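Observation: inputs received (chain + 2-(butylsulfanyl)adenosine).
Thought: call the complex predictor directly.
Action: predict_structure
Action Input:
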Amino acid sequence: MPGVIIFILNRVTLSKSSCGFICIMPDLKKVSPIEQLRDEIAHHNRLYYVLDAPEVPDAEYDRLLRELQQLECEHPERITLDSPTQRVGAEPIKAFGQVAHKLAMLSLDNAFSDEEVADFDRRVRERLDVQAIEYVAEPKLDGLAISIRYEAGVLVQAATRGDGLTGEDVTHNIRTINSIPLRLVGDGWPRVLEVRGEVYMPKASFERLNAKAREMGEKEFANPRNAAAGSLRQLDPRVTAKRSLSMYCYGIGFVEGMVLPETHSTVLERLKQWGLRVSPEVSVAQGLAGVLAYYRLLSEKRSSLAYEIDGVVYKVNCLDQREMLGFVARAPRWAIAHKFPAQEEMTRVLDIEVQVGRTGAITPVARLEPVFVGGVTVSNATLHNEDEVRRKDVHIGDTVIVRRAGDVIPEVASVVLSRRPKDARSFVMPRQCPVCDSDVIRAEGETIARCSGGLYCNAQRKEAIKHFASRKAMDIDGLGDKLVEQLSDQGLIHNVAGLFNLTQTQVAGLERMGEKSSANLIVALEKSKQTTLAKFLYALGIREVGETTAQTLANYFLSLEAIMLAEIDALQQVSEVGPVVAAHVQAFFKQPHNREVIDKLQQAGVSWPAMQPIKQDEQPLTGQTIVLTGALTEMTRNEAKERLLALGAKVAGSVSKKTSLVVAGADAGTKLSKAESLGIKVLDETGFIAFLQGYE
Ligand code: IVH
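Observation:
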């Protein structure tokens, strides 16, 4: 049977020959239990880390590994370099050794526009004197370049790029990365193979690492690339082992004992067959039109990828053509990196001001010299809170790195300390609210400082009204932030109840408001009066009462009166209401001012249908936490949320280990990748609809 023959010839034993070289010998002996175990572990490792398709639970994998450790402990002479037990556990090294690259590790020229790519394509065609070129288009991974040397299929050395000619020996750390095989699989690999690729840290791991650093009061990494580099440049491999790094291979360097295939795409196929990871986004593209279409596609996909990319790379596919094109200085003529607009830029902090939020939270905001980053001009970046300003050590006058990833709020990533001017000033949290002059108080153990003015503070009042009118609250169509500002500044309303006394003439007199828009607003106000108890509760803006808590409170107490009268103990009977939320709810309803506003709202006609007790069996999703992400087409996100809440589920805004299910609509972003990396069940819209129908 041919299969059996191949199997026998594939198994190799490494043995030192008399001349000191490692030889490959067909292993015709019986496979020992220790080898069988190693093969089995390597197989599961590959399924888990390379193919993302585990077959056995983690516990079984751990059991096999422990069994192997035990056997190796009893027979230390049988430990091999490629044994799965040898990934972690090596002793820290004293210093990094140097590795001279047998074949230089080159860099790439960059293109920042379609025109520059067109120039590149024209140059290539002219040099080769051909009409059209076949390219391979790949993501440009934002990590660090590594060259890994396999001898007789066994990983023997790994080095960083360094200056391209000499790098640092990071073998001890590379061995800890589970997705990198210690021994190649399949057949046909050459005697010596240097694999080139990018080691990176997935976005979710980066966020976890920084969250932990924040918790411990340690310095955070500015981005996943720095985190990957920092993790690999560790003398102690045990530190690297904890950092969940991964690698995608994008080519080969030095080889001995193999005739190269004709195309780069075949090279990548081979690497995959040998158990190395190659990005699934890699694609063959025809000519300029093909590569530019790939660029658009990946730009759109970028935010949903589990790792950072900073552009795409186009490479001439035919290796003979590559040879003809050759190199200029340190970069090949046959490849180019087409970069995305930078997501990080440098600029200056002109001032640090504070903003007052709905609950009085005072947020420091950096006013920046405008800078174009991530495709938009940014002139403000949040600094979150006082501690964050100290931790990042941001001074007024500093040069900072501003980051804007996807549609995330721009933030100051780090300070370029070497550029700090002599007259840089540090930020001082004001003692008085800049809007109402009330005292600013930061309670013991809290990170947030707050204005104590409550609804006396014009800023808090405006924010409270904006919240009341917002879509998930009273959903008053057409009452945007600008309009609330005007209504409040002109003294037309002092609190949310005032909204329902507005007349069309008053509204029509405002800036950018005409006959029609004012009439529309009055209609929208009227319409909004018919609401639900949960929405009304949420609209009141009680601290810590988000949509989900509002819904659970409504489901439990069924009427506003019951909630208003509830004692702390009774409130805490509601699932997910702890002492803090209960105290906020009670404090809110004890305030005579708040009761007065609620009275006025009800007098104006705000009402909701009476609620019936929900039987437990009508809430089959009780105890489940579901996250909605991406765009849905069949229903709005809000509708989806309401249906889930009605079935008893908790709908959360972020994915964590506690998440039971993630519903990912079109263009889902990091939440989806996080769910995938945590192994949480994900449903697309069709699956979700079927899921809901199951409860009808
Ligand atoms: S090819 C001769 N392919 O970009 C070609 N590089 O500026 C050498 N990189 O140092 C590299 N993704 O760290 C290549 N798909 C990809 C890449 C990639 C990221 C990095 C790599 C290299 C740098 C070149």
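Thought: report the result.
Final Answer: Residues 106-108, 138, 140-141, 145, 161, 198, 250-251, 313, 332, 335, 337 surround 2-(butylsulfanyl)adenosine (CB under 6 Å). The first strand starts at residue 12 and ends at 16.
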